[in-house]
Amino acid sequence: MMREQWDWATGGRPVGGSESARPAVRPTRLENISLVLQRMVIIGEDSRFRTHHGIDPTEIADALGADRGGGRGFPRVLVAAWRQRDKVRGASTITQQLAKNLYLSSSRNPLRKVKEAVTALRLELALSKDRILELYLNLAEWGPGIWGVDAASRAYFGVPASRLTDEQSAELAATLPHPRTSNPTFRPERTLERRNLILARYHGVEVYIPPEEETDTTPLVLPEPVITPALESLQVAVPIPGDSVLDSLTTRRTDAQTTRRTDATDAQGRTADSSRDSLP
Which end of the chain is more exposed for a tag (fewer CB within 10 A), N or C? Predict the structure, then answer.
């Protein structure tokens, strides 16, 4: 049997582990957590939580685009999932997420996903569904530095987890995929879109709630690269001011002299013509 690394008497600190590995949280028993919130989390994160055994072949097949009625069987689905493992990162069940939070890192290494699946199967053998859900809600991260459902309920809405409304419960459930980059106080429009889908499903409307990848990093917006022009294109022939002035003055003198010579020549020609005309 798998030993739970959780003790109510220690205030929620991991038993036998380092206290610095994860901030200590104040655990809240499942009976003190709103039933509506429990239902919203299951709708948003793992709709077949009550019926699968730690791994959801149907969700994996959906992520792979496989034909569930084609008789592929669970072993063949696992083989296909391994070959196309990048497509099933968002198909983790609540039990798998708990296994990761309890025992594993957030690495995207495929080997970690295998360990996560095996650990999830062992958790299902050792614990009841209610216990798994209770641990998950208390160990999940709901925002930067916010661990545990009761801390999240008080931080975002100022009420304990037992007094959440339908809308508040759905909004918290919508926070789980990306608690650091999308929550009720940071980029809330993203959370509200998912909240509305969860609420619609809760009220019986058949809507598709897309699985979310487990990564949660803040995207960096990089500026457009600045393309520096070639150095040769920056060489511009600029005339020297002194030379320009001298050239201009020289040109004006030459033009004036040429004009005077032309005028004198014309005057001499007219005088000669007048003298010839005056002769008898």
Answer: C
